[in-house]
UniProtKB/TrEMBL annotation:
This is Thiamine phosphate synthase. Pfam families: TMP-TENI (PF02581). It comes from Qipengyuania atrilutea. One of its GO terms (biological process) is thiamine biosynthetic process. CDD domains: TMP_TenI.
Length: 185
């Protein structure tokens, strides 16, 4: 990461917010985090889109994460720009990729414990609230979210149905969103 502090605000990408990502990234505060997922794209298109968005991310000194399964692809095609990749995003059992830290995903106590054992730099704990990403799936709610977060040995980033209003209501310093930071049309 370009700065030593873990960002408080994170934008995640996917097919739903692709058309508004340039604007969304430009509007985020300097030093935010960006998780470039785009699972819907094949490797060549994925790398092309990542390169386009990294220009904005680098100018704003964002910490950028890529999914564990795409780290080698990113490193092979970024030709020296790979220093802008701050870590990998994935489940706690993700194998380490060189010296890139793991930013784990977790949904329950088992995954929190696994993230602790894996030495994850941070954990994205979700879904805090009902989310468009998983319609109808049960959410943690504020109380269960706090119970699980207390078991984490690393910073916890709230994810799932998050917006600025919900983050304030939750009183949680670090949060992430897809639609809550990039209105999906």
């Amino acid at each position: 990461m370009s700065c030593q502090t873990l960002p408080q605000l994170w934008l995640l990408s996917d097919a739903r917010n692709d058309t508004v990502l340039e604007r969304a990234l430009s509007e985020l505060p300097r030093g935010s985090g960006f998780v470039f997922r785009h699972h819907h794209l094949m490797d060549e298109a994925w790398v092309k889109r990542l390169k386009e968005l990294l220009e904005i991310a680098e100018r704003k000194e964002f910490s950028t994460l890529v999914p564990a399964g795409r780290v080698k692809c990113a490193q092979m095609h970024l030709n020296g720009v790979q220093g802008c990749i701050a870590g990998i995003y994935g489940p706690p059992d993700t194998p380490q990729a060189g010296n890139l830290p793991l930013f784990a995903t977790a949904h329950d106590v088992t995954e929190i414990v696994a993230a602790n054992l894996a030495g994850a730099k941070a954990v994205f704990l979700s879904p805090v609230f009902p989310s468009c990403s998983h319609p109808g799936a049960p959410s943690l709610g504020p109380e269960r979210f706090r119970e699980l977060a207390a078991k984490a040995e690393m910073p916890v980033i709230a994810l799932g149905g998050m917006t600025a209003e919900k983050a304030r209501a939750l009183c949680w310093p670090r949060w992430a969103a897809i639609g809550g930071l990039s209105p999906i049309t």
